[in-house]
Amino acid sequence: MTREELIATVQRITELRAQVAQLATLQKELKRLEALVDSVAGVTSDPAQVRQRGNSIADKLDQFLQQNAERDWSAEDLAEKVGAKVPTVRASMSKLRKAGRIIDTHRGYVQAKPDPSNPQEGHPVAVPEAA
């Protein structure tokens, strides 16, 4: 690399660093303005907050399965019930399975995992008979 090429490269690096710094500033301003609009409208643009409110497919599946724990469900049935595509439902089922929220009952079918702390939710809890 010649001296001139080296100088040009260093100058370009300096320009790029300035652009990156400007971009970071613009991103902060964008977030601030979105938060301002969201506070007025009573909504959020933050995807993490949207997921916390139960709007993800996994959250919808979890809620549906907890409310309909009396039977087994296939990905196709669940996709129809929550209005999502089958591959999306399968991915969400995998997340719920890893989180321990659903169990596989037989090939291709799942149920909500019973909540032992709440006998009214999900599957009925067997009460041992007194001797």
Structure characterization notes:
The structure is a single chain. 59% of the residues lie in helices and 8% in strands. The chain is mostly helical and 131 residues long. It folds into 2 domains: 1-45, no CATH class; 48-112, Arc Repressor Mutant, subunit A (Orthogonal Bundle). A 3-stranded antiparallel β-sheet has the order 1-3-2. Helix 3 (57-67) packs across helix 5 and helix 4 packs across helix 5 (86-98). The longest helix has 39 residues, at 3-41. The chain is elongated. It starts with a helix and ends in a 19-residue tail after the last strand. Mean pLDDT is 81; it is low at 121-128.
Defining key terms:
131 residues, mainly alpha, Arc Repressor Mutant, subunit A, elongated
Topology at a glance:
Layout: H1 3-41, H2 47-52, H3 57-67, E1 73-74, H4 75-82, H5 86-98, E2 102-106, E3 109-112
Antiparallel strand pairs: 1-3, 2-3
Helix pairs in contact: 3-5, 4-5
